[in-house]
């Protein structure tokens, strides 16, 4: 049908009709409405002057962002959130949700880290795939973003990310690959930045050779808003849809007429956009844009606001991370005779989401202070003091009143965190410290001698400086619109914390692997740390951290035992262990499986995880499967994944630094033998199954059985074979060429 359209009509389909809609061709292709929505649907309010709808949008459920949802380590929960997002998208007239974001947390300074899941590509891929599956189960398309190597906001529209091939393949691409292969998203959004010299929007290797030809993606590649710099080059590279429109369709038409662009490329892109529109165009029963939430809720196409609010609370509870709990100060007993001081304006005015395009106008909003008052028993005396101002301006009177309140209490629950302006799209952080006035308040409160429970609100990791004297630390991250109630329930023990960190908390910003390279300069950012990102770096160099990747406490304890490993095929194993709740209350454990490899590789890498909920004394098995890809690393010379023969270790634990079970295994490798040539070293030749014996035979006459100086042997091993021929060892360039020929003939049979 699209091929029957005129070239002008086809070209029009490759560019949007407006900020949030695609072009409609009457009688042929319907318009499609898209919406921001990594953690909530953001549809602009038609009565507002804000065309982007960032500050004023139609109310929708603000679920906890990916920084928080990721800490749940619960793919099924992510799937349920995705399904809820689909319901709300349809009710508000959107057919495609622009999310999730699955970029890797390379540096804790990235201002958009709150929209991303983890520093680990396996974790990000699993949670991202679950969210995409949930969204698309509801008849709404998902658009995974930002493809690729978009790991900072500084100079994001121009910066050139210089990333080596192995690092790309092992760290920054696997989450996208998993989602494309397993969840089949409707769309992929290309990033603003350049990748190794070419803008992502016109990067043919990225958008066509890798995404489509290798991974099998058959959906639409859409630009980030304003990411296209050359319409013709972008379309030729594999970009199907430019958003928003720039009025340059005539460039496409002219390029076809002058032979710069093939008509087939235009028709193919237009066909993909048309297919997307036909599949996900707004259904007639959906509430039109601008329908008030209460009216949508009452209609057949609406949603149950209270049920989605309850789901948001469930996510916040499942994702909050208990970092510390000395002397079991938590949970607080709501029935005890005690004085609890609740300190911090954030307890009354919650920080629950980040800034920028993902900002959602919530349907309702819970704060912790009223929720704590509802849960406290009659014998518990609660007092509140703001302690600080949210704009960061020091206020001695507020701080003094809070310190006095804390001194008169048995426990002080102190809510601290970053203001929304500190974590937003378009701006990177410059430090990982809490605001100075909040840190000063915390130090003064801990100096009173009252036990202190610290509750943190932020979209990224924070420096632990100033935390050490607290009794307990609960990291709520950004808990969404129901976070106030969720945090109160965790503090009073209605539920137990179940979250685990997805990002290492360093002792200092200077300890992080990207510290010397982030955010770059002169238009370039060099990924100089390579594949040693996050715990891969910290654990490999054994650098002390505040809290490791995967860490999180509960109100109970767990035992891991009975590790069993069974071979199920070539380079395939089934791994099983038993997790037991050894405490006295219900709780969740996350069993994490890492593979540890010898040689020049990260200390270990996450390859599987399982979250289990257990009653006191209850045990449950956790089962994992590992295969060739789990063992492989990217080989640049080979241009493919490679499993190297040798030993490796299976590790199961409660964090990357709390390994409870280990088993050593051996892999025969994948049978690949790297070719050798004139510039291959003597060491590489000797290790080759064919070249090694040939070289030894060639050298034997010159050696005549005489022992060699070990120092000379060591020197010779690093020489390319053709260079060795310049020494009196019986080799000539012609003889080297003959050896290479024999090896090549053996390889081809």
Characterization of the model:
With 749 residues, this protein is of the alpha/beta class. It contains 23 helices and 26 strands. A six-stranded mixed β-sheet has the order 9-14-13-12-10-11, sandwiched between helices. Strands 1-2-3-5-8 form a five-stranded parallel β-sheet. Strands 7-6-4-16 form a four-stranded mixed β-sheet, with no helix packed on it. Helix 4 links the parallel strand 2 (96-98) and strand 3. Helix 1 crosses helix 10 (263-280). The radius of gyration is 29 Å and the shape is globular. Residues 284-301 have low confidence and may be disordered.
* Fraction in beta strands: 15-25%
**Number of DSSP E strands:** 26
How are the strands of the largest sheet arranged?
Answer: 9-14-13-12-10-11
- Indicate the multimeric state: single chain
The first-to-last residue Cα distance is 50 Å
Structural class: alpha/beta
